[in-house]
Amino acid sequence: MNYGIAIFPSKPIQDQANALRKRYDPHYSWIPPHITLKEKFEADDNKLNELISELKTIANATEPFTINIDKVRSFAPITNTIYFKVEPIQVLLDLQEKMNTGKFKDTNKHPFVPHITIAQDLLDDEYSDVYGRLEMEEFHLEDQVDRFQLLYQLDNGSWTVYETFVFGKE
Amino acid sequence: MNYGIAIFPSKPIQDQANALRKRYDPHYSWIPPHITLKEKFEADDNKLNELISELKTIANATEPFTINIDKVRSFAPITNTIYFKVEPIQVLLDLQEKMNTGKFKDTNKHPFVPHITIAQDLLDDEYSDVYGRLEMEEFHLEDQVDRFQLLYQLDNGSWTVYETFVFGKE
């Protein structure tokens, strides 16, 4: 089965991201707006149990932290994905690092750039248009993060949450 | 904020339900296939924390159980919703009851009939057609349930998982 690990920002940020995703992101209905911590990976039940135990240890050792978002950026020319750029604070980088070393296979396809995708798979003209408009916008979003989620993928491409890991518990 | 409580069956059952939901359920993209334990309710942050503590107590006191599904039924003539009927075993009824008494406001609009919706809001002709076909099918699905999920609703109508409660933990 395919698994992934993500942070869901709080409702106001999800709503704001969805207002754009609805029009510009074909994955809109597959998963709520999120910050990917660990990209898709395969695991059987035994391996999964081992990883869940490790994820609990990681969550227990993590303190809630604040994220800041104040610009829209793009992964062009690699892909034309447009995203809310999440300030890459050390605690977030450390958290992601822990899920891609040791018992975890490194599933990163790219260096970790914390982000919330708001548009992808656009045609070139639409991409230029949307990005040209959004990259100029001034805004500031702030959010408290106190948990991450382990998800698995269904046959239709969508994701279901398997377990929530709250920071500093137990 | 609006919250709800649900069980996600395991992937094979979700995939099977989605194969039908994709065509027949306009809520298909709002939430994965699920058994609703507690219908939509409102709570502020204080109330939510109180309820989460209660949900932990409930989960701790619940042992994993097996559910069985072997027929498709409909809520007609009340609504034309078509669903996988989940055998109403006592442990499931008890679990649902605990979330609708005491600290929890009873949010049931109808008596509790455990089910996984596969079709809703169909036109009469399509409903008759789909239900006529599905109610004749013979099948047997069995699943282990060891957790439930607390979700909140976004502005677009979709649901995000807030926290998972695993049975018999802590």
Automatic annotation (TrEMBL), chains A, B:
The active site is at H34 (proton donor), H115 (proton acceptor). Coiled coil: none annotated. InterPro entries: 2H_phosphoesterase_YjcG-like (IPR050580), Cyclic_Pdiesterase (IPR009097), YjcG (IPR022932). It comes from the Bacteria. A motif (HXTX 1) lies at residues 34-37. It comes from Oceanobacillus longus. The keyword Hydrolase applies. A motif (HXTX 2) lies at residues 115-118. Its EC number is 3.1.-.-. It holds the Pfam family 2_5_RNA_ligase2. It is an enzyme of class 3 (hydrolase). Keywords: Hydrolase. This is Putative phosphoesterase ACFOUV_11615.
